[in-house]
Amino acid sequence: MARRCVRLAFLLIVVTATTLLMSYILQHNQLPEYHPLFSTSSSLMDDVAVRVETMIDDVTIIGEVPNHGENITLANTSLIEKPGQYDKDLQSIFARYPWMERKRFTPNYFIHGLQHGDSPVEMMYKDFTYVFVHNQKSGGTTLKSCIDKVTTRKKMPKYVGLWDERAANLITQEINSKQRRSHFYVSENTFGVCEDFTARNCSYFTLIRDPYERIISCHEFCKRALGDPLCAASDARKMTLKQWALHQGSYFFRQLQFKAKYVCSDKLLRDKIARMVHKPSYWGKNYRSPPCWYRHKLLLDNALSDTEKDVLLKYFQDNLENWFTVIGIKEEYRMTLSLLQQAYKLPFRDLCNNLIVMKGQYKDGGRPAVGQSQSNLITRLKAELQADPEVSKALYYDVKIYEKAREIFEEQKRIYHSHE
Fold it and tell me: What's the Cα-to-Cα distance from 296 to each of 111, 158, 224, 312, rounded to whole Å?
């Protein structure tokens, strides 16, 4: 009997305390805005408990986001729980790095153009400056050869490559030139040049690849191509695949932050970058002149907080379909050619459907891996990378961008087929 009385008394205290707490919350208007993140049950008591815990802690809630089998902790899910904070953080980044606010581009042809038919919007997709953003080791060398074929057939000037340390000077020359030398500009350093090239409509297109498979291909390639700018900041022969993945990190994520005229300039190298290069840990050939992508990594990787990187990730995901007239996927190369041909009215598919310029070369235990053995090797290496938390974190931003790009690619395909 005594135990029963104690239990009843305890239950009465809990109910009374809960009632008083709910009354206090409602009177003081302190109930947080509802979001499914804060509630995992339809039970009122569970809902209140979670909300009260959120208020008491008054800290950023950390979410676990699945990433190809790995859980990666987001640095800034406060983007979800603090309305307006995202915009404030984004404007703060723009204040320091104004070039990241992209203002000149031509939106995705299929999502924003084709569905309008022969409207004035359709007319915007003509008379371009075409800019290929080359995400290296994603089929871009083959696509550049295709561009060569297209410009030759159409009697257009050959493309201009904004290659590495010469990129800043070449861009300046093109801006100052009364007669633009080309309609096509290509390289890994091109994103952002539409802000500089104002004479015609400017259109970006790109070809990207699963980030894990890309880093495997990149590591193998750089063992043989030490002088390529992609490879020149280290020595792939002396690095494991994991070390190489950590070294390169989310490469396309940085490409979307790029401003070649600034980052690749001699002035920035003298004023800032040179003293940031740590000679003992720099395995490249010339530490006095590192490649542009590595300069950018030194400049911004440590200058941007994890919160700011999450803000930029959302900004990039939200704007991919605005910035890129066509987004291609290496795994669907022939479909990509069809999309480019439809958008630009140039014979990409007709001339290049069977063109393959550079095919990856892989070795397994010192022996060449070809055919099924190559496919099995890539599958095994990819699984090892995905299972490594450090690698998953390093490639996280590229993986999320790739996932969004795949969504856009599927929508492009759907609209393309609906207009055949």
Answer: 32, 28, 24, 15
